[in-house]
Design goal:
The chain is an alpha+beta fold. The protein has 2 domains: 33 residues; 103 residues. It has 6 helices and 6 strands. A hairpin with a 5-residue loop joins strand 4 and strand 5. Helix 1 crosses helix 2 and helix 1 crosses helix 4. It is elongated, with a radius of gyration of 21 Å.
């Protein structure tokens, strides 16, 4: 790793910490030439996904586009930015597990709707109205009625499930 201060290439790792549920490693380094300390991040590089659009076009998958769409749906709603970021991570993990190189846009949309439903029903309806191309007020009413009839996710159960999943991951890592 090249030192940002003197461009020296020799350094030592002072501290390493896992973050983002083990998907990222943060390392504090010290340059052996000038003793400057700096931080680097290491993460697994996923193969680039190609999204197959409804009309058959293909485009490169964009994490930023996914994040911005979810932010737009959650705009002016009581949803924390950290919750949106975590939902995006869940979607990315799911896509990486289920698809190698190409993913249909429908698969992404369904995962986004699942996460938004868990986060906020209004954000879900906003996204669904665009994704499912609602054209009449009855489309909104039907979807709102359908989501209202579904059992609401128990936040405590969700927190317990996430905690258990994190504990399993930590145990697997060592």
């Amino acid at each position: 790793m090249r030192c940002p201060k003197c461009a020296g290439q020799e350094d030592k790792v002072i501290d390493s910490r896992s973050s983002k549920e083990g998907a990222l490693i943060r390392r504090r380094r010290e340059c052996l030439a000038c003793n400057h300390r700096f931080t680097t991040y290491e993460q697994v590089e996923h193969e680039l996904l190609t999204v197959i659009k409804r009309d058959g076009r293909r485009e490169a998958f964009s994490r930023e586009k996914l994040l911005s769409g979810m932010r737009r749906a959650c705009q002016k709603r009581p949803v924390a930015e950290a919750d949106i970021a975590m939902a995006v991570e869940h979607i990315l993990e799911s896509l990486a597990a289920d698809f190698d190189r190409e993913v249909p846009s429908e698969a992404i949309g369904e995962r986004v709707m699942r996460e938004l439903r868990r986060l906020d029903p209004v954000a879900y309806i906003r996204f669904a109205s665009i994704y499912r191309q609602f054209e009449e007020i009855n489309d909104f009413v039907e979807e709102a009625t359908r989501i209202a009839a579904m059992p609401k996710p128990d936040k405590r159960q969700m927190e317990l499930a996430v905690g258990e999943a994190e504990a399993i991951k930590r145990k697997e890592r060592g």
